């Protein structure tokens, strides 16, 4: 491990420890939910005794004086109000108990307490040694001690692509009311509050939010609050990052200020103001808007520029967000790798605190992960979370290079065109080196000082795409800067060879420029250049005769083959433990735009080399997909304020699309061989229930609701989960089970091992007027499925149980289970109802028929 020397002392850089509390206190239980607290180490580790961070789990702490502190318990499915005065009082009592415990065990100078978790979970974070962690583990009342771990950070067009301006915003009063009074919390890298996407409206200023109680930190440089009416809360959490030695105040900022750009980007996608011009390098690329442009933004900074973050800080941020009263929580964050001491994907401090958040009525959207296209790469596992996969939308930025021999080479490049009907001389970087350059390889055009300006000026500079672009030490923006510095008309970047997994994204530049991504087309360009260029016997150029012109790449082309599952988007099947055993729960849950998304950026950010110093960036990831769902969930919450998080999730999933804009099944980007990308039919392991359809989600007809008790039943029924461990985290005994985990009332069905006949139950709730629903099913011939009832009429608010019986009719073949060209297993799958729907509702008073779909997969 690393240590830093400061005078005569050593400070170790390992992360903190988690702990949660139990107590042998009598009688009545209280409802502050306990999960884990973090503890960190302060001793000097030997090579064979490395300090580690651990998670500790405790049972309930009960007050000694029952006359002074009343019970805060609620029924298991009742919404927990963590903002009540009773809970606040009890939370203060818990923090005192945490402090007393540490003081009774350790000398003051041997530990540093980082956080008390007291709103959703009962525990604390503390910096201690492994020996102290072992002492704490043996202390009566301590349930578990687990190591802390790191986490990582996982639009102009997408509102139109999703139909928000015409189909959704008008239902809430227009874009200037879409998301009104809904607070979306962002646990991310902070925010750049001066961006126009986060400005308070002069014409329609925001009013007060009495039920939200978040704090606003003050910028230490400007002495101004980070809040402005649009931004209603802004706090930062860095204690675990600080004691680990990873936090650098000069670049990470000890405030909510975004030093990366990631947090500003996600906040703008979900709730950025409407109609903000996106200008980069003097050109406008449209007008940006969040999904819910009138929603408020609450910032909980726990991620940082270079290292990501620590679970200790993230859990503290989540706790605070829920305590403050956010309605929606966006988490574009996931673990680097599972902690060594965590055995199950569903029970750990991170997922357990989110279970308590959902119990408090908060909808949680989490990025599914960027490990695709390989199977079982998800980093979002639990049924109470909406796990979001990333889609490529219909926008493509294309460009072309026209050569003097008449060939037209396709490429990408968000740039202006060269002058119409005029060709310019092509000069290769390696042919215009200055004598002082030392003849080093400079074909990637990152250093203008080694190129001859007199030979480049007025021409098109030809550069080579090197490995430096792949590892991030070279950028297309720097190529453009080099060309501009040397007076070039424009530039061409040719790809002569590619490494497996190389991804080429369009980049906005201020001068004509193009990237030729196809190796064969790049070789056509190089062959033409070499044939046209005259050289002497030493290889020095005597005359440049190759010419060309660059097209206009500023305007995107819209394709009908969208949406499409992005190559990087993490895939299922979902797993229940870190032995990668299949879970009877479908993940991801839903698909949303996440590729090449325009949104606000922080000029402080350095992670994206092509957008350093810019106020907007176009980047990709499931980090960008999750806030799309968070913003759309805010719109659903605005229309249906009493719906539970599970009801909102159900509405989003059951109304989603599995067909693209051309009415063909959605495709997924996938590798063909080691280098070439191809397109294959997508499955629920790629997109969950399908691509989000915001308009339909506002009126789903039926929902599949679930509460805290249902999630406990899921945990208690899942094989391999220890009932004592479940009770340690939830403080509820396993008195209620579902028979099988797949009986959780989720808006999808996944049966990992289908044998003989299995019956599955679901409970539907009608959230529309009185409706008649007809249920049908379509399945592979290998499996028969029957539903009971086959039709039902439900009054508003009525519920009805449904039973689905699956029976294996024959031996499943490899073609039923494994899809060729893909690593992941292809399930035998079904959708219930006509045209792939679970139920068709027939309005009595309207001659319309609509449908919703329940995705069902089995035998994977």
UniProtKB/TrEMBL annotation:
Could you tell me which PANTHER family the record lists for this protein?
PROPROTEIN CONVERTASE SUBTILISIN/KEXIN
Report the sequence similarity comment from the record: Belongs to the peptidase S8 family.
- Provide the organism lineage as a comma list: Eukaryota, Viridiplantae, Streptophyta, Embryophyta, Tracheophyta
- Presence of keyword Glycosyltransferase: no
Q: Which residues form the Peptidase S8/S53 domain?
A: 179-659
Q: Where do the PA domain residues begin and end?
A: 425-517
Q: Residue limits of the Inhibitor I9 domain?
A: 92-152
- Top-level division of the source organism's lineage: Eukaryota
Please name the GO terms that the record assigns under molecular function: serine-type endopeptidase activity
Q: What is this protein called?
A: Subtilisin-like protease SBT2.6
